[in-house]
């Protein structure tokens, strides 16, 4: 697969409202979009940081995977998302052929209307890895 850059870092927070002053006032980043991804039970806030972005993830339900992540590990970095130049579907079949455990067998729609798919942290040295393309 061909990666052009880190598309975003996903960071789990209990509350976007409480997290934003740190990112905006202290770090000086700008939040340009807040959206809820219903099927993921998550509210997301995006901040530009040069070529990459910070994606804040707030659970919208106690059974959201983000709620479980925070319960088990506390707030913090949740996943790393790479921008794939030659297609997420192609990247998935390459990873699959190398024995990497896939969370998504095929690309699906994520926040910001990107095509996304996740690789399982058990196969990626503990880092939940998102592959995405426009
Ligand atoms: Zn993400």
Account of the protein in words:
The chain is an alpha+beta fold and 134 residues long. The chain has a single domain (3-133), classed as 2,3-Dihydroxybiphenyl 1,2-Dioxygenase, domain 1, CATH 3.10.180.10. Helices cover 22% and strands 41% of the residues. It has helices at 16-26, 65-73, 88-97; strands at residues 3-12, 30-37, 42-49, 52-59, 76-84, 108-109, 115-119, 129-133. An eight-stranded mixed beta sheet has the order 2-3-4-1-5-8-7-6. Zinc ion is lined by residues 8, 10, 55, 79, 81, 130.
Gist of the model:
The protein is of the alpha+beta class. It has helices spanning 16-26, 65-73, 88-97; strands spanning 3-12, 30-37, 42-49, 52-59, 76-84, 108-109, 115-119, 129-133.
Query: What is Rg?
Result: 15 Å
Helix-residue proportion: 10-25%
What is the CATH third-level topology name? Answer: 2,3-Dihydroxybiphenyl 1,2-Dioxygenase, domain 1
Strand order of the largest sheet: 2-3-4-1-5-8-7-6
CATH architecture annotation = Roll
Mean pLDDT: 96
Helix-strand topology string: EHEEEHEHEEE
Distance between the termini: 15 Å
Would you tell me the structural class of the helices and strands?
A: alpha+beta
Look at the structure and give the CATH class: Alpha Beta
* Shape by Cα distribution: globular
Bound molecules: zinc ion
- CATH-assigned homologous superfamily: 2,3-Dihydroxybiphenyl 1,2-Dioxygenase, domain 1
Question: What is the total tally of β strands?
Answer: 8
Major sheet:
8 strands, mixed
Q: pLDDT under 50 segments (min length 5)?
A: none
């Amino acid at each position: 697969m061909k990666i052009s850059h880190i598309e975003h870092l996903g960071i789990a927070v209990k509350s976007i409202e409480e997290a934003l002053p740190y990112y905006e006032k202290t770090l000086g980043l700008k939040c340009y979009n807040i959206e809820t991804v219903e099927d993921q039970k998550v509210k997301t806030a995006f901040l530009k940081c040069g070529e990459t972005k910070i994606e804040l993830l707030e659970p919208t339900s106690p059974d959201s995977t983000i709620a479980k992540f925070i319960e088990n590990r506390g707030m913090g970095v949740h996943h790393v998302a790479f921008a794939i130049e030659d297609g997420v579907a192609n990247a998935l079949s390459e990873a699959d052929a190398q024995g990497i455990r896939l969370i998504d067998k095929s690309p699906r729609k994520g926040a910001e209307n990107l095509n996304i798919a996740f690789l399982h942290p058990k196969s990626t040295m503990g880092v939940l890895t998102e592959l995405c393309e426009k």
